[in-house]
Design goal:
There is one protein chain. The protein has 325 residues and is of the alpha/beta class. The protein is built from eleven helices and twelve strands. Strand 4, helix 3 and strand 5 form a beta-alpha-beta unit. The longest helix is centred in the middle third of the chain and has 18 residues, at 140-157. The protein is globular. The two termini are 37 Å apart.
């Protein structure tokens, strides 16, 4: 039986009835907020390509996190900018590294805040790649030990979750084994499982100073044309001990998010990356888009696709808007 008996507009006729039948509800509990920390004191260095985002020294980060906690955001994802870089990215796994310092400070001041740490070498290596370079190429197996050491050092500093993002084969298993061997079997692993070699990372590389000094990352990050491969990567990470799997970026890969959620049933994170953020900010800055409506629509779409966790630079402003609505 169709029109005129069936009239879908009846359930769109008022805000209250739309609220009652809404299928996907976005809340502050869905978000992780990425932060960039650096050495120094009293430092806040704006990221030009990402309006509203800055690199913070740890003391400034602690002040900024007052609002994050007040807004009820459940956690942050921490990236570090080292004091110095070298071929092996030694500050990544140093007990006195910037991420380790930041984690200790955050857990001391805000013990209730979930602290997730990005585990990679690209910000720390002089060549900008995510692993050990030998003969002009990233050596997968030589990188695993350093990634595992980095994860253990973050857990020892107080991280609640570690998130390996390097896309080396076997790195989830290496991290899980190292954590368990060091007495951190309770620490979850959130794996960047389907991380694509995307053009949307440009502003992040400005923020983190992590652009490769030669070549690119297509030898270890995924081909944007592939979706079946993403499922193979996800299943391998789950078999190696991942607790949460991630798809990155989000907007160009909503189909992948949906497939991963439907086919695995495991918790899925999606990273609404820097280029996606910057594009909305630029359009809104020119008056071409209503920023509030656009951001909430984007984040709702990511959740509707199947993401349980949305990592987004919009988290603070989205939390404010949701509180007002």
């Amino acid at each position: 039986m169709g029109f005129p008996v069936v009239r879908p507009r009846r359930l769109r006729s008022s805000e209250n009835i739309r609220r009652l039948v809404r299928e996907t509800v976005l809340t502050v509990n869905d978000f992780l907020y990425p932060v960039f920390v650096m050495h120094g004191r009293g430092e806040s260095r704006p990221v030009e390509a990402m309006p509203g985002v800055a690199n913070w020294s740890v003391d400034v980060c602690l002040r900024e996190l007052e609002e994050v906690v007040a807004l009820g955001l459940p956690g942050i994802l921490v990236f570090g900018l080292p004091a110095a870089k070298d071929e092996l990215g030694r500050e990544a796994y140093s007990d006195d590294g910037i991420v380790q310092r930041a984690v200790r400070a955050v857990k001391e001041h805000y013990p209730e805040l979930l602290v997730v740490t990005d585990v990679c070498l690209c910000e720390y290596t002089s060549h900008g790649h995510c692993g050990v370079v030998k003969d002009g190429a990233v050596d997968n197996d030589a990188t695993l030990e350093l990634i595992a050491r980095t994860a253990v050092s973050h857990a020892a500093a107080g991280a609640d979750v570690v998130a390996p993002s390097d896309m080396m084969d076997g790195r989830v298993g290496a991290v899980r084994s190292a954590l368990d061997g060091a007495g951190f079997s309770h620490i979850p692993v959130m794996a960047y499982s389907a991380k694509y070699a995307s053009a949307f990372y440009g502003p992040f590389r400005e923020a983190a100073g992590s652009a490769p000094q030669f070549g690119d990352r297509r030898g270890y990050q995924m081909d944007p044309a592939n979706a079946d491969e993403a499922l193979r990567e996800v299943w391998q990470d789950l078999e190696e001990g991942a607790d949460i799997v991630m798809v990155k970026p989000a907007l160009a890969y909503l189909d992948v998010i949906r497939r991963v959620k439907q086919e695995t049933g495991h918790p899925v994170a999606a990273y609404n990356v820097s280029g996606e953020y910057a594009a909305v900010k630029a359009a809104a800055g020119h008056g071409w888009l209503d920023e509030r409506r656009t951001v909430l629509e984007v984040l709702t779409g990511i959740k509707r696709a199947g993401a349980d966790i949305v990592i987004t630079y919009h988290a603070r402003e989205a939390a404010r808007w949701l509180r007002e609505s």
